[in-house]
């Protein structure tokens, strides 16, 4: 490779930081995803901008947005980097490998999937399941995953979607809070802080509407990124929580959380196993798919 060819290949670390930062239009979120500090991401972007002699991001206070040059560069290099990742994963993968990589939402992985994996291991001892948590949007194939657990609509373009189950949420409270309060009707919950999960900010409103209480607005309560954070805060007495029942079975069984009322909120979205169709050509993946679909059917009753 001559000097000119080398000059046209920017540092891979800087390119990767640019790709993630451009996707989020946020250096802090890119830092969280990659595992670096925000200042390290900023330095990587500065290195790339110096290399290219263009401004990739417009900085307004603490906010960043892609410049026109940045958008054009992203559109050009993102497919190339994705192709490199896919090609690399295919080279290092062994056709007879019995390992699967599954991406999942943290709460689902910890409270539904992980406790059941022991049974799968006993059935298929040669299978190795590697599980990673993912919250934000990502490229399933480029990131080397065989499948993912997705919540929402079956809207991943070009992917197969197997319905696992819909989510039913219930209102819960710590026994200590319940002991000195009268909870005769759902309206009594409005006297308490209502804990909120980041992606479900409208859930309490829909719960009250379904309970026939639509002439009041629930106040803004503390917001948490993950359901299990909400569960722990509720168990500690921080307020009432609206949580998927399957995620809080341990707290319900131990009495750390107590359900309130019989009303359940079924979300319009559902949990799906999402995967490229060609994964079914691998017997080990087909076995995993059959197992998780069967487990979900049993859980639905």
TrEMBL record:
- Location of the HTH lysR-type domain: 10-67
Q: Which domain of life is it from?
A: Bacteria
Q: Which InterPro entries match?
A: LysR-type_TF_proteobact-type (IPR058163), LysR_HTH_N (IPR000847), LysR_subst-bd (IPR005119), WH-like_DNA-bd_sf (IPR036388), WH_DNA-bd_sf (IPR036390)
Keywords recorded for this protein, A-Z: DNA-binding, Transcription, Transcription regulation
One Gene Ontology term of the molecular function aspect: DNA-binding transcription factor activity
Keyword Cell membrane in annotation = no
Name its GO BP terms in alphabetical order: DNA-templated transcription
Q: Which family does it belong to?
A: Belongs to the LysR transcriptional regulatory family.
Name of the protein: LysR family transcriptional regulator
Protein source organism: Sphingomonas alpina
């Amino acid at each position: 490779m001559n000097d000119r060819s080398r000059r046209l290949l920017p540092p891979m670390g800087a390119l990767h930081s640019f790709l993630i930062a451009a996707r989020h239009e946020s250096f802090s979120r890119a830092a969280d995803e990659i595992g670096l500090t925000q200042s390290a991401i900023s330095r990587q972007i500065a290195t790339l901008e110096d290399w290219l002699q263009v401004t990739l991001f417009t900085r307004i206070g603490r906010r960043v947005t892609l410049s026109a040059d940045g958008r054009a560069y992203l559109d050009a290099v993102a497919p190339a980097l994705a192709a490199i990742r896919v090609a690399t994963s295919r080279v290092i993968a062994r056709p007879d490998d019995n390992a699967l990589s599954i991406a999942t939402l943290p709460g689902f992985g910890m409270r539904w999937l992980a406790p059941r994996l022991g049974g799968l291991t006993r059935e298929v001892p040669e299978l190795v399941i590697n599980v990673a948590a993912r919250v934000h949007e990502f490229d399933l194939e480029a990131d080397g995953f065989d499948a993912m657990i997705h919540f929402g609509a079956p809207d991943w373009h070009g992917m197969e979607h197997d319905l696992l189950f819909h989510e039913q949420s219930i209102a819960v409270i710590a026994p200590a809070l319940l002991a000195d309060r009268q909870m005769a009707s759902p309206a009594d919950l409005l006297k308490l802080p209502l804990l909120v999960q980041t992606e479900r900010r409208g859930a309490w409103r829909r719960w009250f509407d379904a309970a026939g209480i639509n002439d009041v607005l629930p106040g803004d309560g503390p917001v948490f990124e993950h359901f299990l954070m909400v569960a722990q805060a509720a168990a500690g007495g921080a307020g009432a929580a609206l949580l998927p029942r399957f995620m809080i079975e341990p707290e319900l069984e131990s009495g750390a959380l107590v359900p309130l009322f019989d009303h359940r909120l079924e979300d319009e979205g559902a949990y799906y196993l999402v995967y490229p169709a060609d994964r079914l050509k691998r017997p080990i993946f087909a076995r995993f798919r059959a197992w998780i679909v069967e487990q979900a059917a049993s859980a639905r009753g």
